[in-house]
Specification:
two-stranded antiparallel sheet; two-stranded antiparallel ribbon
């Protein structure tokens, strides 16, 4: 099973209630203030299927010019993230283009305890090491600085509305969000297992197809690692269609 534009359109239509529930769940996370150093915006967070659908919904609602630029950034992120420390595609300067609708991973950053966050970071690092081995088996040595990079623990977030939050509360919220995708059980598992909960992979596959996206990523990463060149990527990015123009 793989996603297509037609399937995404149907899933958007059938998940309207769950997307509204998602927004309601977000209100149980304290409002915060931060110094906008955008450290947390150095990557696109993993997410559930319902969050990915909500993100696509926001994309489809944007003006044509902004949406086209954002599609290019999302696709570039997918192809480049093994070899470059790239910022989240939704980051625009120091502002988030979907800040009011940002994902749970973005909202929780700065709220986890230091110990729990460092455990999350270590798990992410170990996962990247496994990915590094997989690329190694394909004859491609990923830059070590990308593998070693970790988003640092944040001490610059303060709770704005006064009520406290702890790891247990955040985990319960995360579980509630995950459960919203269970009404789409097959596609929920496909997004998690085949697309690695990665919105950039999903968007790229909607444009090029699943297998072709994987093939293209291999060649683009190989070009950059072995030749320091990216004409293949530049050509692809210059001809991307606006697949979300009539998505809603």
């Amino acid at each position: 099973m793989i996603f297509s534009q037609q399937i995404i359109r149907k899933l958007l239509q059938s998940s309207v209630r769950q997307q509204k529930e998602l927004e309601e769940i977000y209100t149980s996370i304290p409002l915060t203030q931060c110094l906008r150093r955008t450290l947390c915006c150095s990557m696109l967070p993993e997410m559930t299927l319902i969050e990915a659908l909500a993100g696509i919904h926001q994309l489809a609602k944007m003006g044509t010019s902004v949406r086209r630029k954002l599609i290019k950034k999302i696709v570039s992120y997918f192809f480049l993230n093994p070899v470059e420390i790239t910022s989240c595609p939704f980051l625009n300067g120091k502002d988030c283009l979907i800040y009011k609708h940002r994902f749970f991973g973005c909202r929780a950053y700065g709220l986890w305890s230091k110990n729990y966050y460092e455990n999350l970071a270590e798990s992410s690092y170990q996962a990247k090491k496994q990915i590094q081995k997989q690329w190694d088996n394909l004859g491609i040595l990923l830059p070590q600085e990308v593998i070693d990079f970790r988003v640092p623990y944040c001490t610059n977030v303060t709770i704005d509305d006064g009520f406290p939050v702890d790891d247990k509360t955040l985990l319960k919220i995360s579980q509630r969000i995950d459960e919203l995708s269970h009404h789409l059980p097959q596609w929920h598992q496909v997004f998690r297992g085949q697309y690695f909960s990665d919105l950039s992979f999903l968007v790229s596959s909607l444009i090029f197809g699943f297998s072709e996206s994987v093939r293209m990523k291999f060649h683009i990463v190989s070009d950059i690692v072995k030749k320091g060149a990216r004409p293949r990527l530049n050509k692809i990015i210059g001809t991307l269609p606006d697949i979300f123009e009539e998505m809603l």
